[in-house]
From TrEMBL:
Source organism (scientific name): Kibdelosporangium banguiense
Name of the protein this chain belongs to: DNA-binding NarL/FixJ family response regulator
CDD domains referenced in this protein's UniProt entry, alphabetically: LuxR_C_like, REC_NarL-like
Stretch forming the signal peptide: none
SMART domains: HTH_LUXR, REC
PROSITE patterns found in the cross-reference section: HTH_LUXR_1, HTH_LUXR_2, RESPONSE_REGULATORY
Residue stretches making up the HTH luxR-type domain: 156-221
Response regulatory domain boundaries: 11-128
Coiled coil: none
């Protein structure tokens, strides 16, 4: 009995609105380790709430931005009724406001989608054991927010709040020098959709080109 308990796999539930990304994560986790077991997945908040309640996983890998509310909404609905389930945010975003929002909602850690498969396995196992796990530099956002240190970066920004989560994702990659085609590939959207988001961001920020947008994003620690 004791030997079984020491070799028990961590049961993982995937929440992301991109089926291709979920399939990739499931394949990677299943192929590289016996430490974790993917027991379910969901692409919407509603599916996530129902699936987590049914499967009762140890760890939920949770996307931050989804069309119907995102990771914070899943946490809002699940944390009061399922306190034993641990949530680890897995997102393309490394913006301070996204990190703080899900940590305040109850996530145990936050890693970005640039993480390697091996690092993701370690992160899952660590949060299952009670540790808090963050990608490099993201822990500083949490320390700033919860310590309320003078001079800490503001968590809310009225101008930034005008942008939708997807517009922020596009802006972040644009500011890092990604071409439209690369942004489309990274976010699983069309080039035309990228162009639409960029036009909307330019209009909302009242800026005129990508170079001004890059400086604007840098000032707000989005890059």
């Amino acid at each position: 009995m004791s030997e079984e308990s020491t070799t028990r796999r961590v049961r993982v539930f995937l929440v992301d609105d991109h089926a291709l990304f979920r399939a990739g994560v499931r394949t990677e986790l299943d192929s590289i380790t016996d430490e974790v077991e993917v027991v379910g997945e969901a692409g919407t908040v509603g599916e996530a709430v129902a699936g987590i309640a049914a499967k009762l996983p140890d760890v939920v890998l949770l996307d931050v931005h989804m069309p119907d509310g995102g990771g914070a909404e899943v946490l809002r609905q699940m944390r009061p009724t399922h306190p034993a389930v641990v949530f680890l945010a897995l997102s393309v975003s490394d913006a301070a406001e996204d990190v703080i929002a899900v940590i305040r909602a109850g996530a145990r850690g936050y890693v970005t989608k640039t993480i390697s498969s091996q690092e993701l396995v370690r992160a899952v196992c660590r949060v299952a054991e009670g540790d808090a796990v963050f990608s490099p530099r993201l822990a500083g956002f949490v320390l700033d927010a919860f310590a309320d240190r003078p001079g800490a970066a503001p968590i809310s920004d009225p101008e930034l709040d005008l942008l939708t989560p997807r517009e922020r994702d596009v802006l972040r990659l644009l500011a890092r020098g990604y071409a439209y085609k690369e942004i489309a590939s990274e976010l699983f959207i069309s080039v035309k959709t990228v162009e639409t988001h960029v036009s909307s961001v330019l209009r909302k920020t009242q800026l005129s080109n990508r170079y001004e947008l890059s400086r604007w994003a840098s000032d707000r620690r989005l890059v």
